[in-house]
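Deliverable D2.4 — example input (structure tokens):
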């Protein structure tokens, strides 16, 4: 049985709690975050969630060993069955009609798209991720935003067409979000416990962060876009789905992942970090359950907990209860309820056939 990588679980736990902040954090009447630093939870946790999904695909389809032959076919089936379960759970959560834009249906569709790349070496997948970061947002902008002639090729908006929403017009368009999963697939093929890999990952993350957010802001001030299309191409604000925002989000995710991996693997910090950050790791280990449960609870409490916050008290309760319940559940039960369901109804780990010697 493959040992869990604690740093990955911690990063996933941070992503889940970051989405709690995005959905339940208090805002001022003029739409600003309170406290202001909650802005870090805008767009970035969901992007990290998608990157870690791609990383998980790499881990359960062979890790550093590229799948070939029967193992490759098995990997495709495993991805497909998981995508179906995630999609169904996403539809059920969407049916609750909360103010939360449920990421799971798009997440499932992107899962299927990434399946085509699981046999590629990490360098090739990294190139594909960079290509997707440029091509996907550019194509989205060209299709949805008016240029100099004042018209856009695709006139449909959010909610007009469910399939089009998943691929192009929704909150998490697969044409853009495949970048995150491809990056995760690339990273998941590496030796995540290696200090050298962690250092390169951190340096790459810092570079992408500066190029993405900084480059977009600088170009916007220099170019001063005059059309919606040009403005869209240079945006860096959360959920812009532009190349610059995507690169910045990737940078943040890689930097966070590098830090938590280092903290939990380096001899000087591993023991203390694993103890102190265990509640986050437990939350990350049952991320599907924690994410789904928070949407169900929002539905039970009413949409006011999202739209009409008077303080961060509700958010604090969500975070504390989630950390405590997940810690106790993983300690005394093991896998989360939805993680158990996933294991029960989807294709399991690949087991190579044992060759029998001839007598």
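Example output (designed residues):
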């Amino acid at each position: 049985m493959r040992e869990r990588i604690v740093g990955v679980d911690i990063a996933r736990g941070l992503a889940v709690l970051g989405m709690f902040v995005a959905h339940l954090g208090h805002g001022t009447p003029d739409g600003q975050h309170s406290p202001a630093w909650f802005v870090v939870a805008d767009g970035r946790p969901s992007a990290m969630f998608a990157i870690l999904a791609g990383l998980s695909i790499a881990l359960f389809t062979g890790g550093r060993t590229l799948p070939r032959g029967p193992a490759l076919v098995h990997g495709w089936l495993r991805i497909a069955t998981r995508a179906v379960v995630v999609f169904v759970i996403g539809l059920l959560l969407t049916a609750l009609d909360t103010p939360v834009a449920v990421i799971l249906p798009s997440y499932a569709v992107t899962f299927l798209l990434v399946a085509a790349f699981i046999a590629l070496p990490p360098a090739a997948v990294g190139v594909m991720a960079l290509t997707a970061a440029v091509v996907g947002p550019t194509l989205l902008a060209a299709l949805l935003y008016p240029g100099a002639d004042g018209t856009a090729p695709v006139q449909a908006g959010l909610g007009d067409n469910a399939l089009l929403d998943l691929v192009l017009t929704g909150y998490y368009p697969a044409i853009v979000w495949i970048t995150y999963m491809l990056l995760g697939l690339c990273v998941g093929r590496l030796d995540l416990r290696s200090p050298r890999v962690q250092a390169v990952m951190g340096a790459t993350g810092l570079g992408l962060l500066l190029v993405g957010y900084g480059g977009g802001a600088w170009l916007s001030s220099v170019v001063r876009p005059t059309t919606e299309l040009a403005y869209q191409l240079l945006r860096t604000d959360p959920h812009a789905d532009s190349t610059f925002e995507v690169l910045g989000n990737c940078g943040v995710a890689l930097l966070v992942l590098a830090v938590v991996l280092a903290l939990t693997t380096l001899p000087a910090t591993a023991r203390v970090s694993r103890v102190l950050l265990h509640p986050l790791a437990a939350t990350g280990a049952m991320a599907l359950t924690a994410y789904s449960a928070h949407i169900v609870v929002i539905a039970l409490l009413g949409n006011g907990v999202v739209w009409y916050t008077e303080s961060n008290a509700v958010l604090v309760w969500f975070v504390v209860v989630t950390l405590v319940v997940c810690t106790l559940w993983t300690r005394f039960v093991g896998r989360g309820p939805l993680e158990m369901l996933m294991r029960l109804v989807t294709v399991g780990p690949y087991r190579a056939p044992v060759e029998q010697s001839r007598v």
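The two ends are 31 Å apart (CA to CA).
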